[in-house]
Amino acid sequence: MIRWLPRAWLMLIYGLLYVPIAVLVVFSFNDSRSGYTWGGLSLRWYETLFNNHAMVEAMWNSLWLALSAATVSTLIGGLTALALHRYRFRGKRVLNGMLFVVMMSPEIVLAISLLALFLLVGIQLGYVSLLLAHVTFCLPFVVITVMARLSGFDESLPEAARDLGASDFTMTRTVLIPVIMPALLAGWLLGFTLSLDDVVVSTFVSGPTYEILPLRIYSMVRVGLKPEVNALGTLLLVFSLVMLSLSQWILTRSKQ
Amino acid sequence: MPTPLFVFGAFWKNRPLFMRAGPMTQTLLSLSNLTKQFGGKTVLDSLDLDIYDGEFITLLGPSGCGKTTLLRLIAGFEQPDCGAISLSGVDLTGTPPEGRPLNTVFQHYALFPHMSVFDNVAYGLKMEKRPADEIRDRVGEALAMVQLQDYARRKPQQLSGGQQQRVAIARAVVKRPRLLLLDEPLSALDYKLRRTMQIELKRLQRELGITFVFVTHDQEEALSMSDRVVVLKDGVVQQLGTPREVYERPANLFTARFVGETNFFPGTVDAINGGEIIVDVFGLKRTLRKPGFELHPGQTVHVLLRPEDIRVLEPSDEQGLAGRIVERNYKGSTLDSVIHLDDGTEVLASEFFDEDDPAFDYRLGEPVRVSWVDGWEWLLPEESTVANIGSLADDV
């Protein structure tokens, strides 16, 4: 009867999702200073953005922080997942449950408790405190991603490797880690994105010596929406699209 | 004072292995008093077994009988609670799997998914740090042996089940182990492929001269492939013998029931005359050879007859027991029928077609008489565990 209705509904939903993003991308190339009128095509906001040294520095800081937080949490999280998968020990269930507690608890609670901890222990707020905080909230995501892969893992693979003469260490290096590599990469990417766009925890544990991008943007828009934020948003969008395609490419390649 | 002949007789009975006749009597792998429990449940119960050099030995039993656990103990994936495993006199009991000169073919192949077929087969040689050109030659040889030389660069997922199976075999034999363990390697293949692989495995075993320890729950597979069969139940060896011994002279009711189909007739010993006994089977007096176990008149025994030992006679015949055909199954080379005797006992019969009457068949309900060829029966004593037989049939 009304065959166009489902299609229109779908378009409405996707429109709601994508129109704001499209507007942001289009207006990043707008020559007008106002955010509401179109003044012709221009790259001036990109220029303004790259001339803003504080902004560029915050961007590099954020990238470096996300990179190191993702790497550290993948290392710790990968080993944790392996331990939880391979060994039976007392308190394993509790440990497993505690991961979910960290994941589910409100970010603000995590932020306040981490701040209190850092002040108590005497860690200066800056790169180190940010790294520790980001590793903390990335860790459960990495562990759960890797554990999901391990749960479908054929238990006879390590045995086959041992049977063919590999020591436990060689087996881990040549069979176990390569097989779970896609999950490790997925976990790493997840950690990277989580760290890159975190605001709540970072607000509490960052110091004046180390400014990161989300906080910089936040303080910028508080005094009014500047057009170079659109340019920055577009760049971040392109960057995440590249990362997403990369992860998909790695996953399909490993399935072959 | 013992006579010289007696002394020699005692010595001859206990003569050392090298003086014993027959091929393949040199022990390669010796298992003694192996016991393994999982969570309080005994899976293997002080098991002793000698595996000879160069033989094809099959561990046969229903699921949960301990056959896979036994294989895992030999491979070193599990440690026994007590007992010892030794290979040509060298104790292996505490040795990790990588230190044992034997290899395993896994039930689901366990090929490394991230490696090519070549790298899978080369893995064991790389672990031995062999030079690259030797690895290339030996892997090529092993792949040629299983007719997969053109697939070396493929990934395991790009191969069919049968091809993956052959890669798994090539990977296990490329290191030239003394002993190859095979854990139900054909169970995931379809019937026709399984038949082909059975012949293939036999050929490989002959050509390589490697001792095969093969685990299966398929009695047909066990009979057709093995030099010797170990029938296991609840972690205890029920019978150890050639396929013919296990099939024709089962040691107990379990083996008789598990290996092949069997008719059990209740018999009562009427009289014992030297080497012969007279047994009453459903009122029929048959003169049978005296079995190896102790008998006394009045004792009840089981008379075991395989379906192919049964003779189905015309209803007008004077011999045998009266009954009716209740089912007939055309099996291609045989006609299998189920006959109910007048007292309700079910009898399975399997008859070959012969040139005289290629179209022979039964009507359902047709009256017949049932007999068997004298001397083809096998007697077993009454067992206290007879009650187990009913539940056992479900596993088979």
Model description:
The complex is a heterodimer of chains A (256) and B (396). Helices cover 79% and strands 0% of the residues of chain A. With 256 residues, chain A is mainly alpha-helical. Chain A has 2 domains: 1-41, no CATH class; 52-254, MetI-like (MetI-like fold). In chain A, helix 2 crosses helix 11 (227-255), helix 4 crosses helix 6 (127-151) and helix 8 runs antiparallel to helix 11 (227-255). With 396 residues, chain B is an alpha+beta fold. In chain B, 26% of the residues lie in helices and 33% in strands. In chain B, the strands form 4 sheets. A 6-stranded mixed β-sheet of chain B has the order 6-7-8-3-9-10, sandwiched between helices. In chain B, helix 6 links the parallel strand 7 and strand 8 (211-216).
Radius of gyration of chain B: 25 Å
- Tally of distinct domains of chain A: 2
Q: Count of DSSP E strands of chain B?
A: 20
Q: What is the molecular shape of chain B?
A: globular
Proportion of β residues of chain A? Answer: under 5%
Uncertain spans of chain A: none
Count the beta strands of chain A.
0
Order of helices and strands of chain A: HHHHHHHHHHH
- How would you describe the oligomerization state of the chains in this entry? heterodimer
Distance between the termini of chain B: 55 Å
CATH architecture of the largest domain in chain A: Orthogonal Bundle
Largest interface: A-B, 20 and 25 residues
CATH homologous superfamily assignment of the largest domain in chain A = MetI-like
Q: Profile the largest sheet of chain A.
A: none
Structural category of chain A: mainly alpha
Helix content of chain B: 25-40%
What structural class is derived from the secondary structure elements of chain B? alpha+beta
Q: Return the string of H and E elements of chain B.
A: HEEEHEEEHHHEHEHEEHHEEEEEEEEEEH
Mean pLDDT of chain A: 88
Fraction of residues in H or I helices of chain A: over 70%
